[in-house]
From TrEMBL:
This is Kinesin-like protein. It comes from Stichopus japonicus (Sea cucumber). Belongs to the TRAFAC class myosin-kinesin ATPase superfamily. Kinesin family. Residues 28-350 form the Kinesin motor domain. One of its GO terms (molecular function) is microtubule motor activity. Keywords: ATP-binding, Cytoplasm, Cytoskeleton, Microtubule, Motor protein, Nucleotide-binding. Its main location: cytoplasm. GO terms for cellular component: microtubule. The lineage of its organism: Eukaryota, Metazoa, Echinodermata, Eleutherozoa, Echinozoa.
Length: 450
């Protein structure tokens, strides 16, 4: 007689694991939960931990209204190291280098450990996700330098009192004209922001430290160094395949959100109350967006706040997204902890948010033409090599059977003409249409235009 035995707890853990794997394959955003250790002041007050983790995917809270359990893609308890946390983000860094739009952000109550998770401690004895990501980016670049050439750019801004401030700008004023835009593939970028290039991880880390010095912080009863703004660091990684010439451009967005606050606990000053009101308003807008996405509403209120506009491609957009929900384990913060675990539409709500992640790629000829256009628009003369290629009939003949699409329209090329295709890209629409009436062998079609 054969007796079958089942390890029920193990089966439940495996079920959660495989469910999350399937959902990730569908493009669902991943949500991790991290509980920090009790602080020194909490221990002095006699506070105790109310957080338990039955397994690596579940977390239980002993609240005033009884025990509540929540499900996540992964749970990091207070004994988890910074290395443990970063280990699960390695593949996302690789995706950014491969040309995908990637976003990692931390959400939670003030003093819950968001900045420690994303950045680390001030002395960098325990570096967080951002500095580790800098090293990982250039490690991947080093591994692939024989097949690809790379360029790495970055911009860094903060959203303070509902104003965007460029942290790389020399005067750091909030008067600079910064506009939140989306490119034709849905990637969000900040127009007008200072963009810096980095050639190694040390330079990238130096730029980040320089920008961080200008971020608004203040001391409250809940946090000795409370972030008073949302920090947005974008790293653009452009790679060119040395064999095919194709170009892909990935973006890694690292977002350290300011924490939600209760004035009664923080002991905030008048100015800090104004900051807290702005922070809570933007986080509420973020909750509204996630709720709308989770319930599959037709209208998603991205434009209700600059924070949600900045994160539009990360929530329901084209990014691979990872969200950390940071919580306090202390009984003193039980109510805020439950709100943090519930408000952002975490599992199963967040698993209803699907992103359409895709590479940002251009083929060799389109990438080269864009480079010529960029140089001409900036007043820089194309190199002799570029001119020679522009006049190379064999190259244009290769394009003669292709339609080249741009925001200006579709260009059709007859084998008898060489240079006019480039002109068509850089001249204003009316001028080009008039100019081309004198050329019987070149045609230009403007879709949806008169």
């Amino acid at each position: 007689m054969i007796v079958l035995t089942f390890d029920l707890p193990l089966l439940q853990v495996l079920r959660k694991k495989y469910y999350n794997m399937v959902e990730d394959m569908k493009g669902k955003i991943r949500v991790y939960c991290r509980a920090r250790p009790l602080s020194g002041s909490e221990k002095e007050r006699g506070n105790y931990e109310i957080v338990q983790a039955p397994d690596e995917y579940s977390i239980a809270i002993d609240s005033n209204r009884g025990k509540k359990e929540f499900q996540f893609d992964h749970i990091f308890m207070p004994d988890a190291s910074q290395e443990d946390v970063f280990e699960d983000t390695n593949n996302l860094i690789q995706s950014a280098v491969d040309g995908y739009n990637v976003c990692i952000f931390a959400y939670g109550q003030t003093g819950s450990g968001k900045t420690f998770t994303m950045i680390g401690d001030r002395e960098q004895n325990f570096p967080g996700i951002a500095p580790r990501a800098f090293n990982k980016i250039f490690d991947v670049i080093e591994e692939n330098k024989s097949k690809f050439s790379f360029k790495v750019y970055t911009y860094m801004c903060e959203l303070y009192n509902e104003k965007l401030i460029d942290l790389y700008s020399k005067d750091h004023s909030d008067d600079a004209r910064l506009d939140i835009k989306k490119d034709k593939k849905g990637m969000v970028f900040i127009q007008g922001a200072v963009i810096q290039e980095a050639t190694n991880s040390k330079e990238l880390n130096g730029l980040f430290e320089h920008g961080s010095e200008n971020r608004h912080v203040a001391s409250t009863k809940m946090n000795a160094e409370s972030s008073r703004s949302h920090l947005i660091l974008a790293i653009i990684i452009e790679s060119t395949n040395l064999a095919t010439g194709s170009v892909v451009k990935g973006k890694l967005s690292l977002v350290d959100l300011a924490g939600s606050e209760r004035a009664a606990k923080t002991g905030a000053t008048a100015e800090q109350l104004k900051e807290a009101n702005s922070i809570n308003k933007s986080l509420s807008a973020l909750g509204d967006v996630i709720s709308a996405l989770s319930s599959e509403q037709q209208f998603i209120p991205y434009r209700n706040n600059k924070l949600t506009m900045l994160m539009q491609d990360s929530l329901g957009g084209n990014a691979k997204t990872l969200m950390f929900v940071n919580i306090s384990p202390a009984d003193y913060n039980a109510e805020e902890t439950v709100v943090s675990l519930t408000l952002p539409g975490t599992h199963p709500g967040s698993k209803l948010i699907t992103n359409d992640a895709s590479k940002n790629a251009d083929n060799k000829e389109i990438a080269r033409l864009k480079n010529i256009i960029s140089k001409l628009k900036s007043g820089e003369k194309p190199s002799t090599r570029m001119k020679k290629k522009a006049l190379d009939r064999s190259m244009w003949h290769e394009l003669s059977n292709q339609n080249i699409n741009s925001q200006e329209g579709t260009f059709f090329r007859h084998p008898g003409c060489c240079l006019n295709l480039v002109v068509a890209f850089i001249r204003p629409t009316k001028f080009v249409a008039k100019r081309f009436t004198n050329y019987s062998n070149v045609y230009k079609v403007f879709p949806n235009r008169v």
